[in-house]
Every structure is written in C-alpha cells, then in structure tokens.
Amino acid sequence: MRSDMAPARGKLGIVMPGLGAVATTFIAGVEAIRKHGAQPIGSLTQMGRIRLGKRTENRCPYIRDFVPLAHLDDVVFGGWDVYEDNVYEAARNARVLDAPILESVRSELEAIRPMEAVFDQACVPNLDGHHVKRASGKMAMAEAVIDDLSRFRDTHDCARMVMVWCGSTEKYIQPCDVHATLDDFLQGLREDHPAIAPSMIYAYAAISQGIPFVNGAPNLTCDVPALIELAALTGTPIGGKDFKTGQTLMKTILAPGLQARALGIRGWFSSNILGNRDGLVLDHPDNFRTKEVSKLSVLEDILRPDLSPELYGDLYHKVRINYYPPHGDNKESWDNIDIFGWLGYPMQIKINFLCRDSILAAPIVLDLALFADLAKRAGMSGIQEWLSFYFKSPQTAPGLRPEHDIFRQLIKLQNTLRHMMGEDLITHLGLDYYEEPVEAVR
User: Fold this and answer.
1) Cross-strand pairs, 271
2) Of 391, 366, 435, nearest in space to 63 by CA
3) CB-CB contact of 47 with 41 (8 Å)
4) Which phi-psi region, left, alpha or beta, contains residue 123 (left: φ > 0; alpha: ψ -120 to 50)?
5) Is 167:215 a contact under the CB 8 Å cutoff?
6) What is the average per-residue pLDDT within 123-149?
7) Is 267's pLDDT higher than 90?
8) CA distance 353 to 344
9) Would the pTM of this model clear 0.90, i.e. be above it?
C-alpha cells in the first residue's frame, strides 16, 4: 500500500442532492445490510474479487479486504430534496422496495430528513418543488449549500465527506464562456448566469470544500473547465456522468462482443418505458435531449465507425424514452439490433430487459462513494477516469475519447487498485507461463 494513503478512520458522510428513488433505495439497502445482514449484490466494493499476481498464485481477495475502504458501519447519510418527505416516506412513495424491508429499517430512515434543495424549474420543467432554498442569487445558494455541509459534518462528527448527485436530469446545456475558467464561473454565480444549473452549484460547493463529487445524471455539472480547475486547486476527486444501468449497461456488454468478433451492425433501435420521477422529468424534450446525448454516444465510441466503416459506417442508432406511470421504477427496454456476418448475411438480436433502475443504481452509488473517498485519501485529485465502469458517459481529460467497453473499464479499475496497493499490474498476456518451461528445456 502507498505509504502516503490516509487510513479510513472515523465516519464518512455520504450526502446526496436528490433523495428520490435511487438515493432512498441505496440508503435503505445499506441500513438493511447493517441491521439484518442483507446481501449487497451488485456492489464491487462489497462482493467483487480482484486477482493479484499470477494465476498460479490463486490470490483473489475481496476488493473490500484488499483496499482500505470505509466500513459500512462508519457511513452516515444526508441530502437535499425539493420535497420534504423523510427518507422512509420518500422510499415508500418511490415504491421500489417491499414494505417488509422498509418497515424493518423504518426508524433509521425516518431519522433522515432532507435539507432544502437548490432548485430552478427552468432546468426541470416537469417538477414543481416547494422544499427549496430562498436565498437570493446563485452565489448565495452556493454559500447556503456550503453551510449545510459544515453543519452536517459537525452534527454527525464526520471525518470525511463525499457528495453523489442522485437528482433529476437537467435540461441540455452546452458549455459556454461562463464555464471556461474558475473566475468566469464565480462571476457567473454572482450574476445568476442561466447556464449555471443547480447541479453545478452543488458541485461547486462540494469541490470548494475539498469534498469529492460524482455525478449520477447526464448533466454537464462538473464536466467543465472551471470546476476541473477548482478540483485541481482543492485536491478533490471528481467524476461522472450518468449511472450505467438498464439498457446502456446491456449495450456496453453486448457491443464489445460483436465488435470483438468483427460482426457488422446496420441498426440499433432502443425503446424504454418507465414511470418514476426520472421518467416524468425526461418526458420534457429539453431534459430528454440531455439523456439522449449520453445514451447515443456509447455505441459510436465502442464501435468506432471511423476505423471500421465497412462494419459500422452505416449504423443507424435511435433511442426512445417514454413516460408510463403504471410501471413506476420498473423500467422496460426493448432493443432491436440488425447485424450482419460472413458475406454480408443479415441476422437479428432482440432484447427485452425488464429491469429495476434503482436496484441497479443503488450499488453504484455505494461503490462510487467509497471509491471517491479512497481516491481522496490516496491523494488523487481531478477527473477519476478509472471509475468510468459506473457511467454511461464517462468524464475524461479534454480531447480524450471515453472508453465505453465495460470489460476494458473493469481492467482499468482493477489495475488502478493494484497500483494503489503496490501490486503488479495485470496485462493478461500470459506468455511467461509458456516461455519459462521452454527456457528450462534449452
């Protein structure tokens, strides 16, 4: 282990803007794990293993035993929301978890009440929040969030904190001059610039205090030069964006396999229906545009039509999301994939994924919070590209294409952990298993 890595002593505060379906499912799940020994399925930090050294060594510890992560017993929760329901009420309204699970941790959930949120209805037209801050101006809002963070730290005696955006998808915002430098951004806060969305105010507040920030929505948020600059100044890890769940998870699993076999793709049509708050927000075209950009970029970056035009140059990719209240948080997706193989002969793949968005997202929130805290203690600041495994639209250094292949992302994540702990990186070349016996014979 690196000698300069700080230990995970004391409480870790995980604070989340947006205490909706994802955040409440995450919190209730961790409470059930702590109280009843429920299984943290889907969490690499809790259930994933990592190979160390050669295959012949048979060293495959749990990640939680290999790197010094915060223990679940040392985690405390908080957050902000535009509705004043406590976490138990919000989780019950979200209708993700069954009543017996919620009732078993009811007292723990009722104790967590949201702080008043930073809210701008222009960014989420389909929401009408009333539990919101009344501060005058965006700089005042940022200062109010900083005050919230300070109070939370003192109230819960936190040694460290992490912020994970679990709020709604904001309207599509293009980077502009106000995002160019930290000075421009600060001036924009003072002048209430319309291109500074609520998520950016939260990100600024966290990063300015040295609190790691990760973005679970496709919003621009901290993926701008100004906040990257601030992260460098304060030595703060940042990352995003858009939790990789549901349909896009399937794409990042299947598309690399088709590409690996050099099979062509003519078309990929994706349709979704969901009825939770996220679906309501995405029912507005400005918010859907933000999500669409995130989802559409995946295939192009995996398949690289510019490098293989004969296989993917004519790919037609379409994404649709439809709000359907009866489904609630149970999202259903359909994919029709038109592929072609030897001599151009056509074939088709059909996928019908009946998934639970918040069930898939909850372990991602846990892993990102624990890994972001680890990065901070390891002295890693700025964009944490090694966490791309968890995102639909990974944040990267300017001018660098994101890596969307989930298997390459996993190798990068695991090698980063090996590097942190002073273990050899694994290339999977494996020639030494065969060359050494040959040398012995000679």
Assistant:
1) 320, 334
2) 366
3) yes
4) alpha
5) no
6) 94
7) yes
8) 28
9) yes
Residue closest to 205 by CA, chosen among 188, 223, 222, 183? 222
Tokens, residue 171: 């309207």
**Amino acid 330: pLDDT:** 87
Q: Which of 12, 139, 14, 146 is nearest to 79 (CA)?
A: 14
Alpha-helical runs (H) found in 235-313: 246-260, 277-282, 285-303, 309-312
**Under 8 Å between Cβ of 377 and 7:** yes
- HSE at residue 43, side-chain half, CA atoms within 13 A, is 25
Tell me the pLDDT tens digit for each residue of 376-416: 999 999 999 999 999 999 999 988 999 999 999 999 999 99
Give residue 140's pLDDT band: very low, low, confident or very high (50, 70, 90): very high
Tell me the C-alpha distance between 29 and 351, whole Å: 29
CA 6 to chain centre: 24
Q: How far apart are the first and last CA of the chain?
A: 39
Give the whole-angstrom CA distance, residue 331 versus residue 326: 10
Which phi and psi (to 5°) does residue 243 adopt? Answer: -50, 135
What are the φ and ψ backbone dihedral angles of 419, each rounded to 5 degrees? Answer: -60, -45
Pick from 407, 372, 319: nearest CA to 14:
372
**pLDDT surpassing 90 at residue 1:** no
Long-range CB contacts for residues 278-282, cutoff 8 Å, separation at least 24: 278/20, 278/21, 278/168, 278/169, 278/357, 279/321, 279/322, 279/323, 279/324, 279/325, 279/327, 279/331, 280/126, 280/127, 280/323, 281/124, 281/126, 281/127, 281/168, 281/169, 282/169, 282/321, 282/323
- DSSP assignment, residue 172? P
Cα dihedral: 307, 311, 312, 315 (round 10): 160
Contact between residue 375 and residue 396 where contact means Cβ atoms under 8 Å apart: no
Token reading at 386: 């090694």
- CA 175 to chain CA centroid, nearest Å: 21
Look at residue 133 in the predicted model and tell me its pLDDT.
97
List the one residue out of 420, 421, 391, 414 whose CA is nearest residue 403: 391
| Pairwise CA distance, residues 205 & 183, whole Å | 15
- Tens-place pLDDT, residues 51-65: 999 999 999 999 999
Calpha distance 167→161 (Å, rounded): 18
pLDDT of residue 289 exceeding 90, the answer is no
